[in-house]
Amino acid sequence: MKRIVRTSICIALFVAAVSCRNDSIDCRSYYNKALEEISSEQNYGRSLYNDGDIKAARVIIDHALNIEGLVPMGENARIAKVPARPEYKSVVNPGGIARWDAQPENMRYIPYLQNFQFDMNVMRGDMAVSLDGKPLRATWDFTVKEFSPSCHGTFKILEVPDDKVTSDGFVDYLNSGAFKGCFAVVNWQRYLTLDAHHFERYLPYIGKLDPDKISGIIMKDSELFPYFKARSYYNSPVPVLMMTDDAIADGGKEISVDIDAEMISQRDAHNIIAYLPGTDMDSHERITFIAHYDHLGLMGRDNLYPGANDNASGAAMLLTLAEYFSRNRPSLGIEFIWLDAEEENLLGAFYYCANPTMPLDEIRFLVNLDMIADDGDILVSECTMNGTDHLATIEAINSDNDGYPPFEIALQDLSDNSDHYAFAEKGVPCIYFETEGSCYVHYHTPRDSYVNSTDVNFDRLFSLLVKYVESQR
Q1: How far apart are CA 412 and CA 421, in angstroms?
Q2: Cα(143)–Cα(133) distance, integer angstroms
């Protein structure tokens, strides 16, 4: 696997970066330190295991506490907290400080926290699969769908012909009894042709399987489908494994599975919210920067997902922007939100939008930074229709950005691939940014680590964001 070499100086084309503070503390160094701390393996993939999410949140809040003028905005007593009920996603309920109650010096952290809870299936025990006695490599040869239940045993393998994978016959075929005690091998690309809402393609079919008639599913494809947590709020009747064609190329006869899963009822989660007042005290408008700080945790006890690019990078950039603007106050105030549970289908964003600590209609523009530690010249973007004027401003800055080479801004259709979607659903003008390059190969794998990320694009992206904020009066 190609290793991305971290840069300590700018590429020659990248001229002097914006100083992070008036006393010349280097922004890039600040960003890298925060990125390394947030993506540390000591945070266990920033999920529930060993309080990894809380450890990462403490890192972020410890930085925030040292940023002059940054005000905690996690809870607001004037708000009647209500559940969020996004379509085709988990219900998100109000929560308390829960596990934070046992944290040392917890009171310094609590004011930044917006607490909520939801059901979540976790896999942090056994994770072993073999075909005909040959062990497969987790995260290389196979992943397990996040809604899968525990499974232990050895089962026969039977192939499902493509012509049986149809919207009106697939479930009946698998429940016919022909697959009793077996795992059925299904062509993933064929499965994607089944009629279903694009938010939920599993429950209409996998959710109807009879565990007395079939023991599990193997979805095979030319490339390994990454591990996700988006649909971890329910258990399917049988486990679903994703495998590469190469892993199952010899047409295995039997599969041995040892997978531990556990459904956590009302798992607690925590958004982190802070506000930096601007110099225009008469304006009620603000700019909002968001980035999710959670990641995937574990898929089995030995497969830890550090999530450096996704999305310790965005979380670190928000801290860096907050540090810079605390020393160089803009006209408008800036809200910073580090969102939890993005990997669980944007639940933290939907909860915030149902329970905003500042009015949503006072957001002039929202910028979502998700996966920005890559080395390409492409800046993937999604923008709401009511945000196109801001996009035009950003494009103009990008074309004349203090000598930095311009990004190729690749505008895509709005989708629910990151937290901005929840805000867009509420009518907030917003934009999403992701840098795209060679680091993407590590997406949702344990290889998405600090050493496999890069800061080569930091200076020009940071300058672009600073200049955009400074353009707003």
Answers
A1: 13
A2: 18
> What digits encode the pLDDT tens for the residues 282-312?
899 999 999 999 999 999 999 999 999 999 9
CB contact set of 372 (below 8 Å; sequence gap of 6+): 309, 313, 314, 317, 433, 434, 435, 457, 461
- 3-state helix, strand, coil split of the chain in percent (to 5) is 30, 25, 45
The tokens describing 302, both together, are 């030995």
β-strand partners of 276: 334
Omega of the bond leading into 187 within 30 degrees of 0 (cis): no
User: Are 282 and 140 within 8 A, CB to CB?
Assistant: no
Per-residue pLDDT of 63-115, as tens digits, reads: 999 999 999 999 775 667 999 999 999 999 999 999 998 777 788 999 999 99
Give the three-state DSSP class for 51.
helix
Alpha-carbon 359 to chain mean position: 25
Q: Is there a contact between 422 and 86 (Cβ–Cβ < 8 Å)?
A: yes
Number of neighbouring beta carbons within 10 Å of residue 111: 14
Distance CA(51)–CA(102), nearest Å, equals 11
Specify the pTM: 0.94
